[in-house]
């Protein structure tokens, strides 16, 4: 009987996951949830906001030997002061980013002023939401991390997901195992600037990604200089520094434990005498 009930429930549920605009009886939009699952299967992307810059870091998938790696960028510019990193379906991202670029240029043309980061984020969230409420379409299978500077010159980091929800963050991660990286960032995050912000973003990526510039791509956005991609040499140098610091910290920890054990033994021996 229990098996029959389960299979009947599965049949009922399958009616609700084929149409995007139909809620299931327990309040789910299955197609939107499946889109979020596609994001969780995507490569990891991390964003960290500093006091004077914003850093985006992504996990790079290994490209084929004969492929040009420049055609597979996971970090892109929307306008000269707004950058975006994404996790999920690359083809969907291309369409969404192009629409955001068009909106940013339209904003410049109409208002003779560049669009704010929040305006672009709200637009991207609006497009994503629209594709959860129309018949005959499917949601965008990606989450974005959108960075830039506010009109007052403050660094900003926003996150959007396939449902169209957007929110502002100090640091966030999306994609593969992003929950674990987000928890790590919650413990490790402090207000940083310059190279320390970059280091925090790289350390977050290294929680899951192999330590090499072959697997990591970093972009730094500053108010004056715009977006700059870190060279492979700089990424490798940063990774090496982080690993050396980690080894030194581990050694110091082991030495401390050893010293405490020796002191405890000495105290026990003294008490015995």
Summarize the structure in words.
The longest helix has 41 residues, at 232-272. Helix 6 (195-206) crosses helix 7 (232-272). The chain is α+β, with helices and mostly antiparallel strands and 273 residues long. The chain has helices at residues 2-16, 30-40, 90-111, 117-130, 178-188, 195-206, 232-272, and strands at residues 45-49, 53-59, 75-79, 82-88, 142-149, 155-160, 166-168, 171-174, 216-222, 226-229. A hairpin with a 3-residue loop joins strand 1 (45-49) and strand 2 (53-59). Helix content is 46%, strand content 21%. The strands form two sheets. Strands 8-1-2-9-10 form a five-stranded antiparallel β-sheet. Strands 3-4-5-6-7 form a five-stranded antiparallel β-sheet.
Features:
globular; alpha+beta; 46% helix; 5-stranded antiparallel β-sheet; 21% strand; single chain; 273 residues
Short description:
With 273 residues, the chain is of the alpha+beta class. 46% of the residues lie in helices and 21% in strands.
Principal-axis shape? globular
The value of Rg in angstroms is 23 Å
Query: What's the story with the biggest beta sheet?
Result: 5 strands, antiparallel
Estimate the helix proportion, in percent.
40-55%
What is the count of helical runs?
7
First-residue to last-residue Cα separation? 72 Å
Would you count the extended β strands for me? 10
Order of helices and strands: HHEEEEHHEEEEHHEEH
User: Helix/strand-derived class?
Assistant: alpha+beta
**Overall average residue pLDDT:** 91
């Amino acid at each position: 009987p229990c098996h029959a009930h389960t299979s009947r429930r599965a049949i009922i549920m399958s009616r609700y996951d084929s149409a995007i605009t139909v809620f299931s009886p327990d309040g789910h939009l299955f197609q939107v949830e499946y889109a979020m699952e596609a994001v969780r299967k995507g490569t990891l992307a991390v964003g960290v906001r500093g006091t004077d810059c914003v850093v985006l870091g992504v996990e790079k998938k290994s490209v084929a030997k004969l492929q040009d790696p420049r055609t597979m960028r996971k970090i892109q510019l929307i306008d000269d002061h707004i950058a975006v990193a994404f996790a999920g379906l690359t083809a969907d991202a291309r369409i969404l980013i192009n629409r955001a670029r068009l909106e940013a240029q339209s904003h410049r043309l109409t208002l003779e002023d560049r669009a704010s980061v929040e305006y672009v984020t709200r637009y991207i969230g609006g497009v994503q939401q629209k594709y959860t409420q129309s018949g005959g379409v499917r949601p965008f299978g990606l989450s974005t991390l959108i960075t830039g500077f506010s009109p007052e010159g403050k660094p900003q980091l926003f996150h959007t997901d396939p449902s169209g929800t957007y929110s502002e963050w100090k640091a966030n991660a999306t994609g593969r195992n992003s929950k674990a990286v987000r928890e790590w960032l919650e413990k490790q995050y402090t207000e940083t600037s310059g190279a320390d912000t970059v280091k925090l973003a790289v350390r977050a990526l290294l929680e899951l990604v192999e330590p090499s510039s072959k697997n990591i791509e970093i972009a730094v956005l500053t108010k004056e200089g715009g977006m700059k991609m870190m060279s492979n040499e700089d990424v490798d140098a940063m990774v090496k520094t982080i690993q050396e610091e980690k080894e030194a910290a581990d050694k110091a920890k082991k030495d401390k434990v050893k010293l405490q054990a020796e002191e405890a033994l000495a105290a026990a021996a003294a008490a015995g005498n």
